[in-house]
Amino acid sequence: DAKTTQPTSMDCAEGRAANLPCNHSTISGNEYVYWYRQIHSQGPQYIIHGLKNNETNEMASLIITEDRKSSTLILPHATLRDTAVYYCIVLRSSNTGKLIFGQGTTLQVKP
Amino acid sequence: DAGVIQSPRHEVTEMGQEVTLRCKPISGHDYLFWYRQTMMRGLELLIYFNNNVPIDDSGMPEDRFSAKMPNASFSTLKIQPSEPRDSAVYFCASSLSSGLRNTIYFGEGSWLTVV
Fold this sequence. Notes:
Chain A is an all-beta fold.
């Protein structure tokens, strides 16, 4: 599975949009982009995933560039409860369960 | 809706003792995963089941670890005998089949300390 690169940390003001970037320049055609997060002392939480098209659900939006080499997770109105480590993972669907959490991005939402 | 339910949430045990961790997946999910998380090694997939059948146990560290899924609503992870290096957070997780199997829902974890 392709390697991902994320900034180590980011800050965001409460109520503002949080935009978390991820580079995955070696992604191949059959690999999906997944985003998970982990709030301190809790289990990981699935956020969203996509292949080529942009995706939106009740939690977030995922914007994937046309060449698929990078993506951005958008939390439209960040709250203090969104403070967590966010992980961008590139994964073939056949690699069932093989979530590899790199260092991720620590998002701190501030009042 | 109830999520993945794990028990116990916290366990402290002495080296050499048997530890049993329990999990109830989300109703209707046919994939069940056991993960281990430590600061040193991060999140590791230990084993996963599909329709109660173990599919990939390549992540199980050694014979001291065993996992069972006797029915669709219950699974156990057993460590016998336990060692201090087994201290970690153990997560159970579940997902639906087909294209959603990597949309994985985790429990709150079982925090194991072996002294």
